[in-house]
Specification:
about 220 residues; about 15% strand; globular; 11 helices; 3-stranded antiparallel beta sheet; alpha+beta
C-alpha cells in the first residue's frame, strides 16, 4: 500500500504599511567639554604649602608646572601671599577629572614625594596616597619613639628601600607621620610591614614575611 503525501508550504510575507516612512537618523551629540559639564563655571583647587616645602617647591616649580599646564591642560599658579598653589580648569581642559589629578599630584609633592614619583598620579588611575601616624599604631614617647622611627628607616634607609622595592610603593617618613604612595593592595602590604616594625618586630622577621607576601602577590598577578 503506497500513500502519497502532499507537502504543503506556507509563505509569510512581511507587509510594511505604506503610511510610515523611514525612521529618522539617530542624533549624534559631541562629547561635553570640561567647562560645559560644570555649566561654564570655572572649578578651583587649592593646595597649601607647608613651610618646610617652600624651598623645594621653588627649586622644582618648572617640573610641576610643565605636566600640569601642557599635558593636563590645567592652569596653575603660586599664590605667594597665601602660600598655596592654586589650580583651575580651562576651556580646553579635556576631562574634568584632570583638575583633581593635578591637585593630588601637587599634594603628594607637598607631603615629600619626589616629582618623578608623584607624577605617576597623573598617568595612572589606580594610585593613592595613604597617611598615618606612629601614635595611630602604638603610643610611644621619648627614646621609644626615636627607636621606632629608626627601625622604620633602617641603617641608611635600607629597611625603607627594601619595603618600597618589594611592594612597588614609595614611602615618606616625616617625623612621626608616614605617607605611602601606591596601589590599594600594595599600600596594604607596605602598611602591615611598617606597623609590625613600629610594634617592635625585628627587621629580619618583617623581611621574611614580606618576601612571602610579595611572592603571593606576584602569583595572583
Amino acid at each position: 500500500m503506497q500513500s502519497n503525501e502532499a507537502t504543503t508550504s506556507m509563505d509569510v510575507e512581511a507587509v510594511v504599511p505604506s503610511d510610515f516612512g523611514t525612521l529618522p537618523m539617530k542624533p549624534k551629540f559631541e562629547p561635553l567639554k570640561a567647562h560645559e559639564m560644570s555649566d561654564g563655571r570655572v572649578q578651583f583647587r587649592k593646595v597649601n604649602v607647608p613651610p618646610h616645602r617652600y624651598s623645594p617647591l621653588k627649586k622644582s616649580w618648572m617640573e610641576l608646572y610643565t605636566p600640569v599646564y601642557d599635558q593636563m591642560k590645567v592652569d596653575i599658579r603660586m599664590n605667594l601671599k597665601a602660600r598655596r598653589v592654586e589650580l583651575k580648569t580651562r576651556v580646553d581642559t579635556p576631562d574634568v577629572s584632570n583638575l583633581q589629578k593635578c591637585a593630588d599630584f601637587v599634594h603628594a609633592f607637598m607631603l615629600g614625594f619626589d616629582v618623578i614619583d608623584a607624577i605617576a598620579l597623573l598617568r595612572l588611575d589606580e594610585l593613592y596616597v595613604e597617611s598615618f601616624e606612629i601614635k595611630d599604631v602604638k603610643t610611644l614617647r621619648g627614646e621609644h619613639l626615636s627607636r621606632a622611627i629608626g627601625r622604620l628607616s633602617g641603617k641608611g634607609g635600607k629597611t625603607k628601600f627594601a619595603i618600597e622595592n618589594a611592594t612597588k610603593t614609595r614611602i615618606v617618613i616625616a617625623d612621626t607621620k608616614i605617607h605611602i604612595l601606591g596601589s590599594f593592595r600594595n599600600i596594604r602590604v607596605a602598611r602591615d610591614s611598617l606597623c609590625n616594625l613600629i610594634l617592635g618586630s625585628p627587621a629580619g622577621k618583617v623581611y621574611s614575611k614580606l618576601r612571602a607576601v610579595s611572592a603571593r602577590l606576584a602569583e595572583s598577578l
